[in-house]
Amino acid sequence: VAMRSIITGPRASILPPPPRGGADATWRIVSAPGLSPAALAAEEAQASQRPRRRKLNLYRGKVQDLRVGLDTYLFGFGELAARGTGVSTTDGLRPEDPACDPSCEAAVALRRLAARLGEGAFARRGQAAVTEVERQVLSPMLGMVFMGTLGDEQADQAARAAGDFASSVAELRSSAKALQGQGTLQRFRESLGYLNAFISISNTALATEIADGDTELNLVPLPIDDVALAGSQHWTERQTAFLEAQSPEAVFRRSQQLSPLQSL
Question: What is the band of 249 on the pLDDT scale with cuts at 50, 70, 90?
Fold first, then answer.
């Protein structure tokens, strides 16, 4: 019978291959002479955790991808939604004001928002193009749902929250296309609520790992408005980093960086 050796500290233990279709947890560990029952139990427990650790490593990567996507959605798309009301514009015109022609700042912001929400990019041959929100936010969300790390009930809840978010983004785009300033901002804030529902489900499902210090799995709820943003050190720091990364100087520096192929 083929055997596989695993080294644990100074001892070596032998694990026969798993039954066809079996999991690591079903393997019978044949220990070296003198291995205590407690040590044997510890090795069995460690073996049973290996599949989950592998999944958590992949899940952790999706969480990081989502974190970056949430920055873009909150601070990039959110800025356009806020400017679409006319409150933070230099001309002070609201979309519904008679003086707000197609060139007024609020109208321009709303058209840009609708375009970014609807533009497809990164299409593969024979497939429909995906939008920026689908690629940066929805894709990692769905990856987290279907990775098998969440429990069945929590995965169903997370999938519903992701679907609600997708629907709210469609409503947000419709409102922006119609140049509805306050309505667009309201739709945007509603979409943040669905994202926070997803975040709550994810954090609850992994509460044990997070409590044990795995902070990379933890997602911080999004601030719904400017007051909540000002009261969150986490999000104000991420906003500062995001805006610095979007500055003309930072964009220029990135454009000057050579890829490994270009530097050859």
Answer: confident
Helix/strand/coil (H, E, C) string of the chain? CCCEEEEECCEEEEECCCCCCCCHHHCCCECCCCCCHHHHHHHHHHHHHHHHHHHHHHHHHHHHHHHHHHHHHHHHHHHHHHHCCCCCCCCCCCCCCCCCCCCCHHHHHHHHHHHHHHCEECCCCCCCCEEHHHHHHHHHHHHHHCCCCCCHHHHHHHHHHHHHHHHHHHHHHHHHHCCCHHHHHHHHHHHHHHHHHHHHHHHHHCHHHHHCCCHHHCCCCCCCCHHHHHCCHHHHHHHHHHHHHCCHHHHHHHHHCCCCCCCC
pLDDT at 153 > cutoff 90: yes
Q: Hey, how many other C-beta atoms are within 10 angstroms of the C-beta on 55?
A: 14
Confidence grade of residue 77 (pLDDT, cut at 50, 70, 90): very high
Question: Do 63 and 149 form a contact (C-beta atoms < 8 A)?
Answer: no
Instruction: Return d(Cα 150, Cα 217) in angstroms, integer.
Output: 12
pLDDT digits (tens, 9 = 90+) for 192-219: 999 999 999 999 999 988 888 888 899 9
CA dihedral (69, 72, 75, 79) positive or negative: negative
Distance in angstroms (rounded) separating the CA atoms of residues 164 and 168? 6
Q: What is the pLDDT of residue 55?
A: 85
pTM for the model stands at 0.75
First CA to last CA distance, the chain = 51
By the 10 Å C-beta count (0-12 exposed, 13-18 middle, 19+ buried), 179 is classed as buried
Q: What is the pLDDT of residue 244?
A: 92
